[in-house]
Amino acid sequence: GQQLNQSPQSMFIQEGEDVSMNCTSSSIFNTWLWYKQDPGEGPVLLIALYKAGELTSNGRLTAQFGITRKDSFLNISASIPSDVGIYFCAGFIQGAQKLVFGQGTRLTINP
Amino acid sequence: NAGVTQTPKFQVLKTGQSMTLQCAQDMNHEYMSWYRQDPGMGLRLIHYSVGAGITDQGEVPNGYNVSRSTTEDFPLRLLSAAPSQTSVYFCASSFDRGLGEAFFGQGTRLTVV
After folding, report:
1. Inter-chain CB pairs, A–B, below 8 Å
2. Which of B40, B48, B50 sits opposite A103 (nearest CB)?
3. CA distance A78 to A86
4. Taking every pair of C-alpha atoms in chain B, what is the biggest distance, in angstroms?
5. Cβ contact (<8 Å) for A98 and B98?
6. DSSP line for chain A
7. How large is the greatest C-alpha to C-alpha distance in chain A, in angstroms?
8. Residue B73 and residue B92: Cα distance in Å, rounded?
9. Among partner residues B58, B100, B107, which is closest to A33 by beta-carbon distance?
10. How high is the pLDDT of residue B99?
11. Cβ–Cβ below 8 Å for A42 and B41
């Protein structure tokens, strides 16, 4: 089945630093999505990408849909304490009607 | 607007017991799904439904049943609980199955002893 390889698995950074994480797959996806999960909560959608090459921003977050449709990255600029959490990439295959998730990147920020 | 509501939030079961995890959404979404989240494995799809009366299996369906009698509700049934089903379960719904954007509930943390 489809698998997403998300890296890094964890990050420990200082407040104010920029963050970059990415997902790769051997499969082609129609949509790439990035979610954030806070402790004890469900994932919340941050950014959705629909076209190969698309670059989308949401405040300090920027994500790109890889040109091959097999990868995506998420950047967070000038990190703040509330950015702490687990970030998941997800790929959607329209014909298969399902989301496939990466393993997650756990972000920890030292003040 | 409540979004996606899951009950209960926590549950402890004995091996062999059965139970139903409830999920309801008030956004009139056609597409609903159940995931389980285990450490280091992301979220894995258990079952999904593209509309009332239609369900299908996901990646890890064994030991679980679902039904979709209404647009709003999508319960997940554990037939005979096993310790391997200890996990956090999330229900999600989407307004457009063609885009994949899912809204998640807060989760049910299940422990099977």
Report:
1. 66
2. B40
3. 17
4. 39
5. no
6. ---EEEE-SEEEEETT--EEEEEEESS--SEEEEEEE-TTS--EEEEEE-STT-EEEETTEEEEE-TTSSEEEEEE-S--GGG-EEEEEEEEETTTTEEEE---EEEEEE-
7. 44
8. 11
9. B100
10. 60
11. no
Distance between CA atoms of residues B50 and B85, nearest Å: 25
Q: Mean pLDDT across the stretch A30-44?
A: 93
Measured CA to CA, the distance from residue B9 to residue A85 in angstroms comes to: 20
Please name every residue paired with A49 in a beta bridge, in sequence order, or none if there are none: A32
Sort A89 into a burial class: Cβ within 10 Å, 0-12 / 13-18 / 19+. buried
> What are the structure tokens assigned to B61, written together?
């369906």
Tell me: the pLDDT tens digits for B13-50? Answer: 999 999 999 999 999 999 999 999 998 778 999 999 98
| pLDDT reading at A46 higher than 80 | yes
